[in-house]
Structures are given as structure tokens and as C-alpha cells.
Design the sequence.
């Protein structure tokens, strides 16, 4: 079976590629069927590397007509969560896009979700996990460092892997979030 991926706040698709590589290593075939990215430069890069993949110009444009997916991956803006930002929290002007991420999950009902953000997301996990639990998704999460995959710096990231009841993950959910996180970090830093 092919895992169909929808990507939110795609950037230049480093996260998408890392997720695809991790799923392949776990024995799962996958394909990014659509992306959502607001930045024009990033969309130009996506057109070059994913020329046949539809790209919504804004996460707010994702609607019920989006091609069906099994997994949503993304990393909503971190500026309001990060220690380097204004610390407005998960409802801040930029990090408040989490609400759009959640809307897409409610709307499209994927059986897997993969979220990446800064370590400070841990302070807001209740805002993330609560709504996902209401949708019947359990979750594993962890903090991982780029140094764990050989990068010369720490670049810690928080990864959350919500999954529907009945989804069988090869090594267990905790092992899967670790495997996917490491591939995403390795791809982003290569």
C-alpha cells in the first residue's frame, strides 16, 4: 500500500523528503500528493522538484477538495514559540497557524500526522495533543538533535507523531517517531 502524504507549511520539502526516506526504510511506500506553502521562493523550488504535485498557496486554502491523504506532515511557524521570538505562544500571529494545521487534520482525517517544531513546543503540548485526542489520535513525541545524526551542531527539534487507533507501526510508535525524526534531521542538515 502507498501512503499518501499531504504537506503543510512545506518550505522547500526537506521535511517531506525526510519522511519519505524514513517510511521507505520502515518498508512503507509513500508519495507526496499535495503541498501547501505561502512563500513564493519556496513554491518555485517545489515546482522544480515536485513539478506534478499540486501546491496550495496557503495552508488556509486546503479544503475538502484536496486529494485524499493518509498522513499529514508539517511544521507550523515557530517564531512565537522559540526563545529567539516574541514568546507570544501557540496562539501568536505566526505560531497560531497551528489552528489551521488542526483544521486540516479535522477536515481530512489522516490516520498519521507528523509535526515538527522547536523544543519550546513542549510547553504547549496540551494545545496540540488535546484536540488530536478528541479526534481519536494517540501520539508519541520526542526531542531530537541534529548532532544525533552526525551534524556539527545541536539544532534540537520537537517531533510529534499522532496516529489513529488500529495503525500498526513496525517498531512501535516511539521507535517510529525516532526513526522519522532522525531522517528529517539528517535530510535538513545534508
Sequence:
Amino acid at each position: 500500500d502507498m501512503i499518501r502524504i499531504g504537506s503543510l507549511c512545506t518550505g522547500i520539502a526537506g521535511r517531506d523528503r525526510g519522511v519519505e526516506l524514513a517510511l521507505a526504510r520502515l518498508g512503507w511506500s509513500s508519495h507526496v500528493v499535495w503541498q501547501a506553502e505561502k512563500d513564493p521562493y519556496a513554491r518555485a523550488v517545489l515546482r522544480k522538484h515536485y513539478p506534478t504535485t499540486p501546491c496550495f498557496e496557503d495552508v488556509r486554502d486546503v479544503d475538502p477538495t484536496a486529494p485524499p491523504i493518509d498522513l499529514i506532515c508539517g511544521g507550523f511557524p515557530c517564531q512565537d514559540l522559540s526563545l529567539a521570538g516574541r514568546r507570544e505562544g501557540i496562539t501568536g500571529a505566526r505560531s497560531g497557524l497551528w489552528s489551521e494545521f488542526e483544521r486540516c487534520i479535522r477536515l481530512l482525517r489522516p490516520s498519521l500526522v507528523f509535526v515538527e517544531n522547536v523544543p519550546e513546543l513542549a510547553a504547549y503540548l496540551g494545545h496540540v495533543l488535546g484536540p488530536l485526542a478528541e479526534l481519536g489520535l494517540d501520539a508519541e513525541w520526542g526531542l531530537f538533535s541534529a548532532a544525533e545524526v552526525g551534524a556539527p551542531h545541536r539544532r534540537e527539534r520537537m517531533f510529534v507523531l499522532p496516529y489513529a487507533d488500529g495503525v500498526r507501526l513496525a517498531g512501535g510508535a516511539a521507535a517510529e517517531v525516532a526513526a522519522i525524526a532522525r531522517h528529517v534531521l539528517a535530510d535538513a542538515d545534508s
